[in-house]
Specification:
binds zinc ion
Amino acid sequence: MTDKEAFFGRQLPFRAAPAPDLTATPALKALGSRLQCQRCGHWLGPTDRLANQAWYCRQCLQLGRLTSQHKLYTIPEPNQLPKLANGGLTWDGELSAQQQVAAQSVLAHVQSQTNHLLWAVTGAGKTEIVYPALAWALGQGWRVAWTSPRVDVCLELAPRLQSAFADVPQTVLYGNQPQPYRYCPLTICTTHQLLRFQAAFDLIVVDEVDAFPLATSPMLKRAIDHAQKPTGCHLLLTATPGEGLQKRVARKTLAVTYVPLRYHGHLLPQIDLQIAWRWREQLGHGRLPLRLIRQLRAYQQAGQRFLLFVPHVADLALVDRALHRAGIAGGVTVHAADESRQEKVQAMRDRQVSFLVTTTILERGVTFPNVAVVILGGDDPVFSTAALVQIAGRVGRSAQFPTGEVTSYCHSYTRRVRLARGMIARLNLQGRRQGGRP
Ligand SMILES: [Zn+2]
């Protein structure tokens, strides 16, 4: 990479020009009586000053401190990229008929450079559905970013894209990444990293668009808009769009492609609701709802493995003890900060344990064949509508075991649970029209 390439479509802060022929703008720009950070869009407050009286931005500190003594240097994106034959696609897998239809729709929207939502249920194979559109874009010499608010999604995705597009130079960007930046046709990065780009990408694929923190962060939404060229477009991927996106779809201000069936052609499992009055107080006394105990015992007798979701880390020990007392053994508890998290998840995969008691950390991205899912306290605010649908999606992911049970024990039938069941019902209605099996 030449020194110049580091500036293509990026905005990098320096106190003095690091090279000739760069376009420079003040990092903090005065608009009226206030200063706005040109990297993240934050409006500075009266106390955002250093001892030397320079102003600085608090919001994007993570990327290095930006002050009124800095300028942002850039070279407008020149697309000095190879036009790869076949878009560099080396993937030899095959799309199902349903995936094929969705892939054609995604491709058509990318070709016409329109923003677009791919709403694909968990287990639909949404990454592969995007391959034809991605190959077309790379074949045009487009610069493409595939971004997610979650670093684990990026880390899981990078090797998959590297093997599916083996001929495409790729760079992976996240906080503390070990590799230096490279100018490449395909950039895989956390949404935070897009703050370093400006009008760089012809296409931005936003994976898990509903995931924290993107859903609630105006800064990250702005980062996507800024990193995209004015002529560019974005493709949003999700299994569970939030209410804002659903409204845009309903008002027809955002085009959508639905994939209501999983790759094996089965419908999503519906959440079975069980009212467990005052389960929280019961748990405080060391007891679990009787129906829950019976259900789990029946699972154990049938050799059915399961995931038991609870709202909070503090609930894990209580539930674990109550299960022991009820004679339900053979499982382990796991949570986000658990040092043995990976080992425990692997033990479940290797069938060394018969169940996991867990918090919402396992809501996405984790696949075990043939598990049942039980949620204790699905009415707790920690379980958003999206989280409930994602958790239900842990069931029936493999073609060998495409069905299974999802049960939620709730003190009351909350709006979030109702919306989650409504979303699954609507997707399944569409799925049935496409010949989906229960
Ligand atoms: Zn900033």
